[in-house]
Amino acid sequence: MTPITEVEGRRLALSNLDKVLYPATGTTKGEVLHYYAATAADVMLAHLHDRALSFLRYPDGPRGLRFFTKNPPPGTPDWVRTTPVPRSDDPDARQVLVQDLPALMWAANLVVEFHTHQWRRQTPAVADRMVFDLDPGAPASIVECCAVALWLRERLAADGLSAYGKTSGSKGLHLLVPLEPAPSEDVTAYARSLAVEAQKALPDLVVHRMTRALRPGKVFVDFSQNAAAKTTAAPYTLRAKDRPTVSAPVTWEEIGACEDPAALDFLAGDMAARLEHHGDLLGPLTDARQARPLPGG
Q: Which residues form a coiled coil (predicted)?
């Protein structure tokens, strides 16, 4: 029998709680739901608020079928909010909003990675943050990503912008920058210019083009996720990896000191203590007072 749980007045059917989703650690679906409810909810909801969501679903764990979806899944409750996100293939398309704890738990019960756009629902294609996805090509690792992040932080600061880091929860690092609202195409162009500049400054370490043949041993500075149609793994989401890795905010001290990839490898079980110690390191992204204008905007 599927247990029915009431969350803030909403009735949720939470299924297969004993199912092992992460065989490498024995982590069950019940433990995944506990992570979202008890550890991540307060900080995560602030980063999801008013952002149209896409889901990478992995209902049988990361070794099973995985599929990406933008449309609200079949059976989405009528109390889960959605927002118009017109696409060329579907002008009437809508995507899910996760605005509260019941919606978060409903989505988590589907077993998903949470991915968001860089804009809010009120202003589609007008970004209020910029992202750089630093993706290492083996044998490079997150250690090399950290070196590139330090360069980008200094370069952004020269333009009056502040950057905040989080692990991707996979191999790399994300840098996020709070902005006064600006067209996504302008943000993408500026981010691309910095990626090109980074490659010129660090030619043995950085590549700004996606071509895989160029990437071994280097860090791909992916600026393309600033495009209006693109999404990035949300802060605090679990990833569909062998272990329940988290896209976890990190300090600049941790980035600067990183000499071992394991130093920035965080699991769901690590996050309560980190939040207790650091609070939400990405809090400035949700504070409009921290936003700065896009250079040249």
A: none
Q: Which is nearest to 141 in space by CA: 256, 218, 61? A: 218
Find the mean pLDDT for residues 261-277: 97
**Position 239 pLDDT exceeds 90:** yes
Which of the four pLDDT bands, split at 50, 70 and 90, describes residue 1?
low
Length of the chain, in residues = 297
First-to-last alpha carbon distance for the chain, in angstroms, is 57
With beta carbons less than 8 A apart as the criterion, state whether 179 and 187 touch.
Answer: yes
Neighbours of 273 (CB within 10 A): 10
pTM as predicted:
0.96
What dihedral do alpha carbons 15, 19, 22, 24 form, nearest 10°? 170
Q: What are phi and psi of 272, to 5 degrees?
A: -60, -45
Phi, psi of 117 (to 5 degrees): -75, 170
CA distances from 116 to 30, 227, 279 (A): 24, 12, 21
Selection from 27, 167, 168, 52 nearest residue 107 by Cα: 52
CA dist 100 to 96, 128, 134, Å?
Answer: 12, 21, 30
DSSP letter assigned to residue 214 = G
Reported as a single tens digit per residue, the pLDDT across 66-78 is 999 999 999 999 9
Amino acid at 292: R
* Alpha carbons 45 and 37: distance in angstroms, whole number: 11
DSSP letter string over 103-117?
HHHHHHHT-EEEEE-
* Cα-based distances in Å from 264 to 175, 221, 286, 290: 14, 19, 23, 26
Pairing of strands 219-222, 206-207: parallel
